[in-house]
Write the structure tokens for this entry.
Amino acid sequence: MIALTHTRGQTWAVFGLARSGLATAQALVAGGAEVRLWDDNEASRAAAEAAGFRATPLDDAALAGCAGLALAPGVPLTHPMPHQVVANAHRAGVPVLGDIELLLRELKPVVYGVTGTNGKSTTTALLAHVLSATGRNIALGGNIGTPVLALPRHAAGEGVYVLEMSSYQLDLTPGWQAKIAILLNITPDHLDRHGTLENYAAIKARIFAGQGSGDTAVIGVDDDHCRAIHAELVRKNTGRKIVPVSIARILNDGVSAVDGKVYDNGREVFALDFPALPGAHNGQNIACVYAAARAAGLDVATIRAGIASFLGLKHRLQRVGMVDGIPCINDSKATNADSTAKALASFETIYWIAGGKAKEGGIASLRPFFPRIRHASLIGEAAKDFAVTLGDAVSHTLCGTLDKALDDALAVARREKLKGAVVLLSPACASFDQFKSFEYRGDEFIRLVGERGGLNEQGAAA
């Protein structure tokens, strides 16, 4: 835990008591602050009280005199309208910020940050892995799972915090500054929370906020919004190094991952032959990590060796085992169609498990991949709508639940006996209709594969 000693003697409010919120409350108390906290969810309040806190509704009286409101990233800040507690804080003149802002104020640490609509978790974990393999003191956290205030405290000048940053977290970190910052891509997502795609892109661009001489900006340039952000970085350069990354073409000035190879300023540096990182989308992740690791002082051979030793990210194209010779792939983290497109592009013959709580647009954008799908086993609230979209183009079954879907997919795969086929859980949906999170959904898939005799070492360790 990182005790927030700079808050000693102050009174702070905390709203949202899941992992990051509870860690923030504990860090504030450890630093000598008084804490008033609340969550709309009764179970979360009970967990906080079990940890020794007393929950208090954060009305005007409770917020009076508070130095700040530490807001969990899942709580609406602006759209579709501010949560009532945010409105209360604004009325009381209490600043609203997140746990990462408190980390930066406490330590002024060296931070490497990663954001993007898709691929940010894999890229963050891979970058941390490559750096850690050299013996560097690395703490990995943020949106990837571990709350930042639950990470170890690095002494001044020692260690690096490698943080995955969601748009929600960037919105709550006004003092954000990263020595190395990566923006992978921007596609429509979270528009219910940001209002428009333009607002969402502007918040993502904050990953480069505050950078100057000696800092590095790594940015994918294969979508319109990122290209516009790159052009603005170049136009208003603050002295930082700017490294564009493409998987669509070989850049003469930048890093590329094209036709199975990584190029640095047009020169081939190594092949993309990493089994744990299949698909062109992982080419972008690898290229961005390569650029960041070079900026951090690593040589090519060290970077390649670090990437080769990476086993992959749980719930992201995670090969968890084989049932009757059929590989079962856990891609539960694919909560939108664009993310699922990356998975469908990675395999030629697919028995697809999809569905859940649908995102805007459904799966219509996945039509180009329908020829790869031998059969779809559909679950959750979106199943009927997905079936309409698939129509006669893809054989499908309305299964309802994940266990029935896995059995359905395996039954068709066993019957057809096609070489190179996989059973792929890549839902293209949020999990909240049936599961607490995509992690719970993925863990249940792993458990079900294990029940059917299919776990390998990676699945067993998951």
